[in-house]
Structure formats: structure tokens, C-alpha cells
Amino acid sequence: MKNHKYLSLVFVLIVTMVMVAFNTQIKFNYDFEDFFQADDENVIFYKEFRKQFEDDSQFLLIGIKNSPSVFDSTFLSKVDALYQSIKVDTNIKKVYAPTHLKRYFIGPMGSFRSPLLNYSTPSKYAADSSYIYQSPQLVESFFAPDAKSLVVTIKAKEQLSRKATRQLIDNLKISCEAQGFEEYHIAGKLIAQETYIAKTQVELLTFASVSLVLIVFFLFLTYRSFWLLVIPLLVVMLAVIWSTGAMAIGGKDLDLLMSLLPSIMFVVGTSDVIHFFSKYIEELRKGLTKDEAVSKTVREVGKATLLTSVTTAIGFFTLYFIDIKPIRDFGLYCGLGVLFAFAITILLLPPLLRILPAPKQQNVSIMDKFWNRILPQFLTFVLIKRKMVLVLFTFITAVSILGISKIQINTKLIDDLKDDDPMKLDFLFFEENFSGARPFELAIFLQEGHDSFLEKEVLLETNKITTYLHETYGVKSIMSPASMIKGVNQALNGSLPEYYRLPETNAAFSKTKRLVEKNRKREEFRMLINEQKRLGRITGKIADIGSQAIEIKNKDLKIFLNSEIDHSIIKVRITGSALLIDENNADLSENMMIGLLVAFASIAVIMGFLFRSFKMIFISLIPNIIPLCMLGGILGLFAVDLKLSTSIIFTVAFGIAVDDTIHFMSRYKMEREKGRSLLYAIKRTFISTGKALIITSFILSSGFMSLMLSSFMGTFYTGLFISLTLFFALIADMMLLPVLLLFIGKDKKSSIKSI
Hints:
The protein has helices at residues 5-23, 41-51, 73-86, 125-132, 162-179, 189-223, 226-249, 261-285, 290-317, 325-355, 361-384, 386-404, 422-433, 456-473, 481-492, 506-518, 523-526, 547-564, 577-586, 588-611, 614-637, 649-673, 678-705, 713-744, and strands at 59-65, 92-96, 102-107, 110-115, 149-156, 183-188, 438-446, 476-479, 535-542, 570-575.
């Protein structure tokens, strides 16, 4: 490398130019269903099940509040004006507004309709509201139980572009603002996806900027040298460019998780550079020439830096065992990014340091005096109080294990947003005032010997299920094949609310069946019975009470279905996107443990290669397992549920935290190989690497803490808990590791005063 320094720089430049070209192809994406396990049987079934019906994922809801009641002529006129303004939007397929809903009547002379709500005639409000609140299919679907809110439902056109989606959402907000409503909320999958993408773009820039500022601050504070500030920034920026370029080559879009990659590369890449610089400056201070200092740094720090890069990459790569594609991709590209950062450090730093002038030694010596005074004093205290240190860490571990026993796996659909986030407030509005926000889905299979879901025997079984779901499970706004029959039966009987039920006679069943089948091309029919008429659907909404409570309800539902439903007529299967999210979270603990075990085993192999001693492997792992226990204890004691958004923390934190131990143990091994006594080797290691460990830990922790600025709780917790783990790991390396070395070392009876 010394003889080919310019060739190395040219190589880095060429690769960077290629990666920059690929970076221009990166797109943003947030598809909730990417987080489903692609090869899971339930996921495969749900995707096929959904294809059989009219897609209902394009619905948007506008919830509008008015006090003291929605039955107010001025307010309802505004609702009608809103309807008139948005129905002409070219991105909208259909609008369902309470002011334009109809009551259906079927008589001897044919069918006709009348307004459900005569909004322009206040004298009819009393009768209209009485009818509405006697109709369970209307309350909590279009009207809130307290009569203070109503819902306008919009169905957008399929496969809208992002630009069209953004335009639609903006137009809806403009139209609502124009009416001057007291309070309104818009919710739906379309707005959720658009909001997540917009937030991801903003936070990507925010995290990267904050991380960059923190790195500049710490580097300037530490080295006070222009070149020692610019070179690390160049390395980490190239690491980001190479990593995102690799994403583009692999066809990976930026999503919520991948938006963390630049920040991670900034803070992780800086760690390699700081260890390199610290050794380089140390050798310059000893009187070596610039070339000699660079050569010795590459020899002594290069191996340790390679090992730390590999261990950090392993921490990310073990996310492969979480069988969710976005998490696996995140682990893959972050792991590659760490390796890129190491390659850039080795290829770029030695040539640049040989070309550029050496830093001024007076600035270095001032900082060295500070570290050379503080670190030996701290080490002396730790070794004198070594028994207290062991007792302290034992106590902390015991408390942590107690906390770990309290960890729960639980999730809510929109738990990843902070409580004051506007989108979450919109979500909670519908949760509190209407049917709930969590979708509920049942698939119904028609058995042999039955030709239609509209047969009396089939409808009776289906009605048993819908009754149980409404009265016991808590599902609201239920739609099923039975609901179509109930609606027609009501229309045949003067549209009276009490006739929203199944017909009581065979003749009435036959008549309603014929009328429903005449309308089989209507949207409502296609949403509930597939084209082949062998698969049906029961759909509704439920309060988002958490996956643990839902699991109990599902167990009770399965007991009911097995005992009360005639399986010779129909068979039923619980499905839906919410169920798949719950199942993903239920698999977390197993996936996370597998990933951690692989990480432990991989690190143990690396330590074994480095030291060829079981004792040293044990000593190396203990200071990194304890911080993970402490992290788990915090999760349990502070009731932070384990979920998809927090599943990556343990393996990533372990992979990064173990870096400090490797640097410490590598230097300790070199000192022992030079024939140093145990205490002197610990002292030289502590002073030489302690400074770099502290600086890198503070940079890493501060960089990850920048993620706490996120509006996503998963990202917030990732930043908080990885920062805490790195801090705990630093404490363990600076306190517990020297004590363990002293107890296990062969000349452990040496005097502490020799330090």
C-alpha cells in the first residue's frame, strides 16, 4: 500500500463514482405488507383470499365532529357541500356521505329510495335520528353513538400513483378546511402510507444531519486538527454512498428501517477511524516518522479493526433470522455498510496520512496529559475495589434477569407513532367514536352439497357467527353474506329497523335470495362472495386492544366455531392483515434468540481465533452479555413491549458493543506477548485504548441518540436502547473487564500500587 498509495485512492474514487450513479436510482417505499413473512402459509392464504374480492384498501374516512349534535342544519349543509366538492375529484371512485345515504323500499310496484337523512328539512331530524339510532348497521359506521360525529367514506381509484395520492389527500384537506368544521380527521391506508413515506424522507435528512454535526463536534473537541476532522468525515460519507449504492444495485428501496442506514454508517464508520487515529497520534508522539507511524498503526490496529468490523457486521447479519424481509434487508445492507467502512478506512487513510502533513504535536500532548492523568487513577480505583465491582455487576445482572422475566410481546396497529402525532390522533378519533380501527376478517368456505351462500342453512350458520362476533367478540360494522339478506328483508318490510334480520319463513328466504342474486354485480356482493360463489367473507372493525387480548378472543372464537357451527355446511378460518401482524410479533422471541445465539457463537469463534483460550473467550463475552441483560431488564421493568420495531435492538447492540472489548483484548494480548506483567499489561492497555473506547462510545451513543428525534416509536427506542447498551458496555469494559483479567491472570498477586 505504501508503494501504491495513489492507486488505492484511484480505486476508491472509481468505486465511489459508480455508487453515486446507482444512488440516483433509489426510491422511497412504505408498504405495510412487506413486513409479512412471504413464505408463511397464513400470509399466502390471505393474499389469495384478498384477490377473490373487491379490494377495500382504497377507502379513506373523513370523521367530522360537531357539538352538541350532528343533527344541525348548518353543519349538515357543510357536510353536503363537502360531498359536492370532493365527488368530482378524478382520483375518487365513489363517495358515501350521510347526507346522501338512502333508505330502500321494495313493494309490489317495484323498488324506490328515499333519503336516510333529510338534511335540508330540520323538522324531520327527530324522526330521521330515531330511525338511524335504531339501525345497528348505521351507528358506529356512519354516525357516532353520542351523535356528535359522523363519517364520510371515500373510495379512491385503484393503483393511484404517489403523486395522485398526495394530490387527493391535499384536496380532501383543502375541502374540509373550506367548510370550517369544528374538528375533522382523515384516516385510511392510503394516507398512512403517504404519511410514512413523507416522514421517512424528512427523518432521513434529519438523522444524517444531526449525526454529522455530532461527529464534527466530537472530532474537533478530541483532535483540534483540520485534517483529522475532514478525513473521518470523508470516510463515513463514502461509507454511506457505497452502502446506499449497494442498495440500489440490489433493487432495495428506502423504507422506514433503511432510512436509519446513513446515520448508522456515520457513527459506526467513525469508530474505525478514531481507533486508527488514536494509535497513529500515539506513535507520532513517541517520535516515529509519519510513514513509520502509519505502518505501525496498520499492523497493530488493522487486525483489531477488521475483527470489530466483522463482529459488528455479524450483529446486523443475524437479523437474517427474523423472517421479515425489510428487517432482513436492513441487516444485510447495514452489515455490508460496516464492511465497506472498514475497507474505505484501510484503503483511504494510510495513503492520505502519508500525503498530508502530520498534526501538530502540541495539541496532541495537551490532550494526552489529561487522559494520562485520569485513566490511571480510575483504573487504580477499579482494581482496589475489584470485589465491590464484582458484587455490583452481579446485583445488576440479578435485577436485570428479574426484569427480563416481565417482558411481554404485545402490539397495536399504530403503536409505532408518538401519542401527539397527528396521524395517531386521527386514528384514535375513529377508535374512540366509531367501530374501531383494527380490521377483522373471516374466510367462509362453502362445503360440498351446498350451492350458495344465500341458502337458508348457510345463512343461519353465518348469522350465528356474526351474532357471536357482535355480542361477544366485540366486532362492529359487520358485513357478511347474511347482511345482504337482512338489508333486502328490511326493504321488503317498509325499511323498518326491526326487520334488519333474516327472513322467518322459507318463502321469504327464497324471495330475498332472488332479489339479492339479481344484484350480484353490485360492489357489495363482490366484496362478500367471490366469483365462483364458493368462498365468502365476514368483515368488520374492532377496537385496537393489543395482540395479547386479541389472542385470547381468537382462542374463544375458535372454541365457539368448533362447537357451535355445523362444519358440514361451512368451514371458517380467521385471517386478515391484523392477524398477520400479531403472528409476526409472536415469532419475535424465537427469532431474536436464534439471532443472538448465532451472534454469540460467531463472536466466540472470533475470540477463539484471536486468543486460542476458552478463558479469554469467557472473559470477552461476559462484559457484553451483561449490558444485553440490563437492556432486557429495562424493557421488562419499564413495561416496554417487545415488537417488530424493537426486535432489532439486541443483536445490533451486541454486534456494536463487542467492538470495544475486541480492541481492549487485542491490545492486552500484544502487551502480554511483549513479556509485560499482568498489571502492567492491563495498565498499558487501559491507557492506550481507554481514550479511544470512551470517545468512540460517546460518538456512537450520541449518534444513535439522534434517532430519538424520530416520530416513530420504534426508531426512538432503537436510538435510546442501543445508546444505553453501548454506555453499559463501556462501563463493563472499563470496570469489569480489567477485574476479570486480574482474577484469571497468572500473576494476579502483583501489587496494585505498581500501576
